[in-house]
Amino acid sequence: MDGKIVILTGAGISAESGLGTFRDEDGLWTKVPIEEVATPEAFARNPAKVHDFYNMRRVRAAEAQPNAAHHALTRLQTERPETVIVTQNVDALHERAGARVIHMHGELCRALCAACDHRWDAPPEMSPGAACPACGAPKARPDIVWFGEMPYHMEEIAGHLRAADLFVAIGTSGAVYPAAGFVEEARMAGAETLELNLNRSDVSAAFDAHALGPASEIVPAWVDEMLAR
């Protein structure tokens, strides 16, 4: 198939690299309540707890390695440069596999100043009251989009969805908006749609086709098929 491919990846693509998913039976949000670590209110109430949570995740993400699914998407993007990868993941596994990605939910390896919006590379460990290197305000926080905040790059992503010939969702739960609505946006623009997932998602019915299984198996197989056409 020729044309523009837009791919959305979620936690399921990194699960086989040792980074847990969020909404499965044993997912992260079953162990740590969202409202305690992943909202602006949680950060205002207990910044130390929030920093500890993201410090732990930052260490684990740095130790993880890209898996076969990440490498397969890099191969697809290399051979089909019009391929756009949008990720809900805050790890850097796509980049470490050599891909170009749009991070809609931010990045664990980056810090953000809540006072002036300056961004910089986060140290391995962040703590309450850390100063912004640009304005000096003690307002450093993880550069992560928390619940209740607007995801990044939405206009750019919307433009890619309108131009897509094929939209593919990989390893997503279909439970978090606006990403869960991307399949409908792509369908309305005339794109074919495909879901690659371990199990059917909350929005599976909106896709034209599905392939179920571990990402490290079904993603390389799909990429092989695409590049053989």
TrEMBL record:
Catalytic activity: N(6)-acetyl-L-lysyl-[protein] + NAD(+) + H2O = 2''-O-acetyl-ADP-D-ribose + nicotinamide + L-lysyl-[protein]; N(6)-succinyl-L-lysyl-[protein] + NAD(+) + H2O = 2''-O-succinyl-ADP-D-ribose + nicotinamide + L-lysyl-[protein]
Every Deacetylase sirtuin-type domain range: 1-229
Pfam families referenced in this protein's UniProt entry, alphabetically: SIR2
InterPro entries tied to this protein: DHS-like_NAD/FAD-binding_dom (IPR029035), NAD-dep_sirtuin_deacylases (IPR050134), Sirtuin (IPR003000), Sirtuin_cat_small_dom_sf (IPR026591), Sirtuin_class_III (IPR027546), Ssirtuin_cat_dom (IPR026590)
Binding site for substrate: 54, 57
Gene Ontology MF terms: histone deacetylase activity, NAD-dependent; NAD+ binding; protein-malonyllysine demalonylase activity; protein-succinyllysine desuccinylase activity; zinc ion binding
Sites where the protein binds Zn(2+): 113, 116, 132, 135
Active-site positions on this chain: 105
Protein family per UniProt: Belongs to the sirtuin family. Class III subfamily.
Record-given protein name: NAD-dependent protein deacylase
Organism: Roseivivax halodurans JCM 10272
